Amino acid sequence: MQLKIVLSSSAKLMSLIMILERLLQQLLQATVNCGLRRMHW
């Protein structure tokens, strides 16, 4: 029983980490794009 709980919580944690990584990537990309635009100006 406890193992199942641990597995489900770790799966939730993994999906949360994946979502956070995607958000960070998007944020980084947006920052880089803004920086490039600023450099061109």
TrEMBL record:
Specify the superkingdom: Eukaryota
The name this protein goes by in its record: Uncharacterized protein
Q: Which organism is it from?
A: Arundo donax
